[in-house]
Amino acid sequence: MNQNNFCIIMAGGFGSRFWPLCDNNNPKQFIDIMGNGQSMLQNTFHRYAQVCPRENIIIVTAEGYGKRVHSQIPDLESYQVLEEPMRRNTAPCVAWAASVIESINPNANVIVTPSDHAIFGDRLFVEKMNKAIDAANRFDWIITVGVRPSNPNTKYGYIQFSESASCKDIPDLHKVVTFTEKPPIEMARQFIHTGEFFWNAGIFIWRLDVLKEAFSQYLPVVYNTLHGMGADVDRQQLLQNYTRIDSISIDYGIIEKASNVHVLEADFGWSDVETWELLYNASGKDANNNAILAGDVMTYDVKNCLVNAPGVDATIVLQGLDGYIVTANKGVLMVCQRDQQENIARFMTDYELRQHRKK
Amino acid sequence: MNQNNFCIIMAGGFGSRFWPLCDNNNPKQFIDIMGNGQSMLQNTFHRYAQVCPRENIIIVTAEGYGKRVHSQIPDLESYQVLEEPMRRNTAPCVAWAASVIESINPNANVIVTPSDHAIFGDRLFVEKMNKAIDAANRFDWIITVGVRPSNPNTKYGYIQFSESASCKDIPDLHKVVTFTEKPPIEMARQFIHTGEFFWNAGIFIWRLDVLKEAFSQYLPVVYNTLHGMGADVDRQQLLQNYTRIDSISIDYGIIEKASNVHVLEADFGWSDVETWELLYNASGKDANNNAILAGDVMTYDVKNCLVNAPGVDATIVLQGLDGYIVTANKGVLMVCQRDQQENIARFMTDYELRQHRKK
User: Fold this and answer.
1) B353: nearest CA partner in chain A
2) pTM of the prediction?
3) What gap in Å lies between CA B232 and CA B269, rounded to an integer?
4) Contacts of A320 in chain B (CB under 8 A)
5) Using CA atoms, how far apart are residues B310 and B317, in angstroms rounded to an integer?
6) Angle at A194 between CA A189 and CA A199, to 5 degrees
7) A322-343 pLDDT per residue, tens
8) Residue A187 sits at the chain B interface (C-beta within 8 Å)
9) How far is Cα of residue A35 from the mean position of the Cα atoms in its chain?
């Protein structure tokens, strides 16, 4: 394993899309959404630990979540867990982590990754990452990862790529032509029809010097403000610096503007698992098309259901359900039609109001 | 209140029809099936305490359930809770309790009642019981209670009654012509069509001397074996006596054979609540025809459902269910179509097997 390989895991997300498994105090990256016994963050850490030495993995999270990270992944050094003092989207997060990495190894290869996506096929994934690092070492390029789209999803970012390979010996690497974030449905259909588009998996692989150059060129205020900050920076100083910079994503701030972005086609399975429906799609099914992810569950004449109930100390007996989500966590048990899941946010609001009134 | 009024509550039933609320350790009479905050037994006791002095109510239950009775109904004297040493159906249960009553008051009027039926309209019920006791005092009759049938239920007993009133001033009391237990559906339809049949509510009102006479005539072995036994009878002796007698119901052993049985028509609501469906029918509904009996429940687009989940410490959020039973008790949560409830016994067996395997 190349000792120069580093990874920045962005684990500052919040939200409650998977209520009642998740809520604002328990965002998705810390929860075992997939029902595999590990949180999304744990899955992500262990995946990248096959590409980078453990001590080279930096996890950036939001203020207050540091303890959670340490408890989920034991034996991390303090420099490996960075708590941002306020939410400023992904660009500042990467800038600070890169600054910490520079203080350790100026010759680093840096992978930037979300903490809450699902990857299927770890061996293919590791091979692909090593290939990306190899390309990043040979060329002054920003490497992204593209997923062949299976449907015209309008919530993803699309990467148009040049037909020819970026270099002879890496036939699955292509120069990026355009980025389009969340296209209208007709446009997404057209994208898929042409065969020239990938989904953007949100993973970036670049050498540290290429990363620094990109930040100084496209986001100079972010770069100048956060550059030189270590993991043990004075918190007051850190807060002051963060208040001085804008909230901006690394995609919008750099990747979509840079001219040296290349995309490597993923052959492993990928899902951002942003919704119950995507989780259902990404999960293994039984003979009746049920994804039973967690919980002690007995089913009779149940089909097309997603069951994920890790947080309830009871056997769940289900009969005659077709197309439902059944989930339970401490305090809430929910049965909801899969095609009505957009209403779950409302159920959560109603529930919180109800809990508030009880006090 | 007439100090001669006594009541025998038969609370020895077992079974698990309402699993997971009930199981063989938690039979229906001890459970709050109706969702009114009281067990069926507590409901029954408080209902009859409006007809009989509290200290005149005798509860007969199965060996091991006595503590349960005392804990559900505080301040009972020891003679008020009789634990039968083995299950011998209802006739021996009544014979022993009558023997205990005789030792207290030989002039007793005795009401015999199940412990797990639902009665709606306590005021009408009390009036009707007093009318029955009045009739039992004036005539040497066995008075039963008949419910006007609303459908050709094949699980009930049917009482054919004489059109004319048994006596001028009690127009709702009729001589019984025939008893038919659980008729075939065509016969039940015919019964209803004639208008000459009631359902048998399983409640009997008679003077103690009439009761004794009936036992000595129709069930002399039961009578002779158990007569004279007090509440504090030696348990070994009691067991020996019980082993000597047959298992027989009071309906089959006496009521269906006696020629002096009269039936008083009930004007209060009644249900034996033997199934989830009967419980649903007997329960109050919300605007969407849901019977939400117990539990902290939030519903969205839910209709024709029965929810009774007293034993779960969670809010239950339901969306898009039509015609389901949702119930939970410590250790089990169940969602099952109302029209598939006959399968619940199988679910319970499967569950118990599963629990057994886990050990």
Assistant:
1) A298
2) 0.86
3) 37
4) 324, 336-337, 340
5) 15
6) 65
7) 999 999 987 899 999 999 999 9
8) no
9) 17
